[in-house]
Amino acid sequence: MAKIKVNGINLYYELHGPEAAPVLVLNNGIIMNAATSWVYQTKTLSKGYRVLQYDCRGQGQSDHPEKGYSMAVHAEDLSGLLAGLGIQTAHIAGISYGGEVAQAFALDFPEKTRSLILVDTVCEVRPELRIVIQAWMDALRLGDPLGFFNATVPWNFSAEFIETNTALLEASKERYALLDFQAILRLCEAFLEVDFTSRLGEISAPTCIIVGGKDILKGLKYSQILFSGIPHAELHILDGAGHASCWERPEEFNSIVLGFLAKQSANEQRL
Fold first, then answer.
1. Which of 51, 117, 155, 170 has CB 3.0 to 4.6 Å from 93, enough for a Cys bridge?
2. By three-state DSSP, how is residue 197 classified?
3. 58: left (phi > 0), else alpha (psi -120 to 50), else beta?
4. What topology is assigned to 2-124+195-270 in CATH?
5. For 109-135, what is each residue's pLDDT tens digit?
6. pTM for this structure?
């Protein structure tokens, strides 16, 4: 819907929902984008919240600079975006790569973080996950959209979702052909530097952790590390969902998010 200059780059963003409502920020996964990827969330979540969807640097319609990619920089970008929009505090949600951005934001800008929603995400990169991402990067370096599609889809969706959504996935091959492979490489490099585990105890915001029960990329073992390390956290498992749980189980996903946010509102009113 609009762009704003932050940290020397232009960030694309969309705002949905009542202007006076509490702000909920949705941070994208690595190959998601703000304009289309929250199709199952926007209408429902924006009934009671001012939903801010945006593309981080290197994603979608935001600028794709050649340098300056890290979780700390993403957090600074988001802080600048909120400031530019006159938003003092927000509920910060993120899936996968967006969940890692959300962690960085909560650690670096606790005063702006009302609560934290971490979905199918990690606070460290273990050897098996590193190999998967390096395989993705190999496909990106070849500049082969179909190769990148084949390398990523089995990790991003459950087998059941792939089997029952062949037409949807087939159509998405066209979107893969439009991706900026060099920008995604830079995002992957930033991801491989993620290491927040030792700092999880510093997160002061109430935290909701959501993970697909069949997420084989950033699954339950990673969510359990988050749950064990973050002081005020709750853990929800979406049975049958793969890594893209907001797509595979949207109704359950939205219900968990709204229930968690309602609890935060009630707690804030009691203070």
1. 117
2. helix
3. left
4. Rossmann fold (3.40.50)
5. 999 999 999 999 999 999 999 999 999
6. 0.97
